[in-house]
Design brief:
Oligomer: heterodimer
Radius of gyration of chain A: 20 Å
Radius of gyration of chain B: 20 Å
Number of domains of chain B: 2
CATH superfamily of the largest domain in chain A: Cyclophilin-like
Distance between the termini of chain A: 43 Å
Strand order of the largest sheet of chain A: 5-12-9-10-7-6-13
CATH topology of the largest domain in chain A: Cyclophilin
Structural class of chain A: alpha+beta
Strand content of chain B: 25-35%
Helix content of chain B: 10-25%
Largest sheet of chain A: 7 strands, mixed, barrel
Helix content of chain A: 10-25%
Shape of chain A: elongated
Chain lengths: 234, 325
Amino acid sequence: MAPIRCEPLAEDALLLHVGEGIAPGTSDRVLAATAVLMRALPDVECVPAYASVLLRFDAGSWRTPGGPAPHQAVGEAAMAALASPDAASPSAREVTVPVCYGGDAGPDLAEVARLTGLGAEEVVARHAAGHYRVAMLGFAPGFPYLLGLDPVLAVPRRADPRTRVPAGSVAIGGAQTGIYPDALPGGWQLIGRTPLRLFDPAADEPAALRPGDRVRFASIDAARFDALWAEPGR
Amino acid sequence: MSVQALRSGLLTTLQDAGRPGHAALGIGRAGAADGPAWRLANALVGNTGGEAALEITLQGPTLCFERAARIALTGAPIDASVGERPLPPWTAVDLPAGSVLRLRGMRQGCRSYLAVRGGFAVPAVLGSRSVDLHARLGPLGGRALVAGDVLPLDETGGIEAIDQLRIRRWGVDPQPWFDFALGPLALLPGSHADRLDAASRERLHRQPFRLAASSNRTGARLEGEALALAAPLELVSEAVLPGTVQLPPSGQPIALLAEAPVTGGYPRIGQVAAVDLPTLAQRRPGDAVQFVSITLDEALERQNARERDLQRLVQRVLDRGESER
């Protein structure tokens, strides 16, 4: 494992390079580092991505007379925290996401079946059997990028992105799977839809999924989807 | 008591200091694109609580004030009037009840700020009254103002009833808070700047780019002779910030502004220094944008000095306004 490298991005931001590429092992290291840093540096905003962690801070409050520049001070504090053996463990939450696969809920399921050479049922079975982890959120509030997709299910994005993907759509884009929290434009292949509300700005926890959460999908039928979708407070 | 929008203007949004602290959930900060102008507008009307103001883009709205109100306009110099009376920018003005404030074009610049004493009484979302247009977050359902919208005013900001418009005799000198000279912008090195080919590296700091009409609160799109990488670069999504200059495959850079997304997958070829970010946000389509390199230490020093000056000025404006009550 290469040592973590620290790059100043801006006057108030540092990027910690933890590894390279999109891989569960790298992401696990990122998430572990993020958990340590969030505990050690409560006034620094820590934002995990696939292979790096952004640290954003108030440069003014990290300035000391005659001391190091703020980004240097934050970088040193971060490295010291990561070197300490008292590592905090990242989120161990496990969230089950109900998904209605195929049909109107997953208009690209047949295309994914064609691209993978599997039957639609096999695609659903493999997708629902996976153990996933939220590597990061981005693109839109509450949009989780999940790692752990069965490599057989990795399919390219649509050549012709949709201008509007329905809220709750469960989709595959390359080696990742994700869930559209809201009606959004998007180019991923839609294989199903969840009635779970992924983002609610008025809630104490606005995002249903956080970085590091472990996610399982549970297949539900259209009637169950409709019933859950209609629940008050959804 | 409230303000009603009779016309919306081109793109008018409520903005405050933004929504920090939620990037890990995919939520960007948004907030005023020209922070110093927003802060000074608030100071001129006596606001000290980071109140939301209207950020007005290129063409302003027409607003009807149901009650008497103290307002101030800062940022880009906007053509403003009540009835026949033109209003000076960077100055507090007291409007009688029933005033119709007409805001039109800007002689220069792209964004003006309208602050009202007491602020707008709209609910905060995740701690901020900033509208995030892409995420559809914030007051008004996270959208821009439309004709017919009614914005309630906070009653703590009420002023005594008056018959006539009153323009305060003093204001703030827009220099150096508005860049009339279209000077070069300081650029910090980006993570992938050294991956540009030699000609592009030079072009990034030499050529005057033009701000494209497709620019918005998310990014300033820069047009010029295309920049290219020396070799293709495989990147995964990583954090981006306001000021990050990204290079999409078109070779035309995008400098992210206040509504920057939290992550991006394009090469980062530069970072506009914080001290010059408000200036970039004031460039309008067709304006020149030229970069000059700066080191992180210099950028920090300039930003510090600017922040110190701004805090001092805000305090002076607040004290003087208070002493006249």
